[in-house]
Amino acid sequence: MPDTSQVRFDATLPSPDIASLDYFDAHVHLDLMSTAPELARSALAHRVGFFSCGVSPADFPRITETIAGTAGCSVASGIRIGLGAHPWWISDGRVGEADLELMLDAISEQRFIGEIGLDFSSRFNVAEMQECQLRAFKSICLAAARTSSDDAPKVLSIHTVRSADTVLDVLEDTGALTRCRPVFHWFSGSSDQLQRAIKAGCWFSVGEQSLKTGKGREYAKVYPAHRLLTETDLPSSKQPACSLEDLLASLKRTCKGLSKARGYDVRPEAVANAAALFGA
Prior knowledge:
Elements: E1 23-28, H1 36-43, E2 48-52, H2 60-71, E3 79-81, H3 87-91, H4 97-106, E4 112-119, H5 127-147, E5 155-161, H6 164-174, H7 176-179, E6 181-185, H8 191-199, E7 203-206, H9 214-220, E8 228-230, H10 244-262, H11 267-278
Parallel strand pairs: 1-2, 2-3, 4-5, 5-6, 6-7, 7-8
Helix pairs in contact: 1-2
């Protein structure tokens, strides 16, 4: 079994004034970037903050120590690092039982959880894969709900591909819906599922890719103003060496698309929402 003591590194770096930033990326994967140290080092100078979502619990200590060690606390103060177990990694075995034990042991001391969730697309249309994802997601949500606090609720960044109703059922059944702050990353469910998630009090992080579809642009009009966040979901598989300029350009395109859909400049609102959710 992996050494769980490594995961107890404090991923909540000194409290930033996120509201003073120009942009906040609420879903990005620094753990998949070869350029993560450089990106973190230059983030503050460009007034950008972000929530780095992990795909495997085993990567959490490495990326946390990399960011803190190379950027320094003052520079990395706008960065939040998530403890995650991506459903793709769970399905293909890259995240195994030992990794999940590691995550469940560490989750009580971490406020930011992600990426987690379910993917029931055709790629994973195998009963064993979906059952494996569901078992893991239930256990993570239950542990998060049990260890969340009223003054600093845990933030969950959630993958919901063809699984929105099941995700909401799990959040309700485990208590994570009310005890934590669920954020639906790149929501692509039906309009009825969207309304259910909105009524349940969920948050939504939106990136430029979702705004390229008609459904995504329509959904952009109805997300609750006080629970709307921007994201990039970078890096892409074609460009793992992502730069801060790439991230910033994507955030600007997202803000432009959201602003067009909603009829006003969403950037200040998105940053204020990020400060409310990810601040101390």
